[in-house]
Amino acid sequence: MQAIKLTGPCAASDLKPTEVPTPKPKAGCDVVQVKAFGVNESEVTSRKGESDGDFQYPRILGIEGVDVVSATAPDSPYAVGQQVAMMMGGLGRAIDGAYAQYCLVPHTAMIPLDTKLDWATVGALPEMLQTSYGSLHTGLALQAGESVLIRGGSSTVGLMSIALAKMAGATVFATTRNPAKVDKLKAFGATHVLIDDGQLAPQVHKLLPDGVDKALELVGTTTLFDTFAAVTAGGRVCFAGGLGGGWDIAHFSPFMIPSGKSLTSYAGEAKDLPAQAFNEVLQAIADNQLKVPIAQVYHGLEQVGAAQANLESGHFVGKHVVVLA
Fold it and tell me: Which helix (H) or strand (E) holds 271?
């Protein structure tokens, strides 16, 4: 089969397909035919050789994908020909991932699908949807009628979170640093779009004097305490991303959390996204009730380098999706 297998750090332009052995099923894992996959920041980091210790060369990158089951293990809960999504579970890091025609996937990293949507649309979803859904429902326990702040709203997870929160019946406040992206955030369901200059809380309180009920922090620890200030008494903040580079708090003390407010986090796996929820989202997309933030679609493994370069440039809004079907 053809795959992009790295033997060491390289430039995006060096991502070229090569011939490698096709995997075979084994206990706990099935072989899938990859139809499409999204390109992620973590894969750019791995390609540069800057990943954590769970990543080692040589490696086929790709932490997510959408596929058709090609060959099953004796203990498989899936059938040949079944549509599935795959994500996390060590894919593209501890084990070979989706940048290939075929992939050996742990059953625990697979979600059954049933859709007639095109592969590009479905391929944009797995990791983005899992993070957004988990952050809103596991992290924030968001309910209809509540107000929620999505800080980092123009990111792919931010845009999907806006759309899901709107679909859940929440009033959505979303942020961007770029005024040119305001209309995009409103198109995905944001009621209020705020320009993030680092001091967001005063803007929120002008619109909602008591503050928002809940907030999803995607920018990082650099803005976390300003986000807390935008949340009402008894409110909750979920930390799920570090777009601004802040992942740690030096000399952290629990007393840093404002009295009466809650801090949680979300960093989940495929098991946190129920198949029913994934398929409900697919149906909502098919019914034109939910938009998918796609920046650009690429065709063939030969275009993976261009997809990573465009992602790395920061000039695009939405997911970069490579289709192999």
Answer: none
Tell me which of 35 and 53 has the higher pLDDT.
35
Which amino acid, one-letter code, is at 98?
A
pTM score = 0.88
Of 93, 165, 156, the C-alpha closest to 127 is 156
What is d(CA 165, CA 295) in angstroms, rounded to the nearest whole number? Answer: 21
> E strand or H helix at 200, and its extent?
none
3-state SS, residue 237: strand
Nearest CA among 238, 240, 235 for reference residue 259: 235
What is the C-alpha separation between 189 and 291, in angstroms, rounded? Answer: 9
Buried b (16+ CB within 10 A) or exposed e, 124-160: bbbbbbbbbbbbbbbbbebeeebbbbbbbbbbbbbbb
β-pairing, 171-176 vs 110-112, is unpaired
**Mean pLDDT along residues 290-297:** 93
Higher pLDDT, 222 or 202: 202
d(CA 224, CA 235): 14
Beta strands in the chain (DSSP E): 2-3, 5-6, 18-19, 29-39, 59-60, 64-71, 83-87, 102-106, 110-112, 147-151, 171-176, 192-195, 212-217, 231-239, 262-265, 294-299, 319-323
Q: Are 173 and 204 in contact (CB under 8 A)?
A: yes
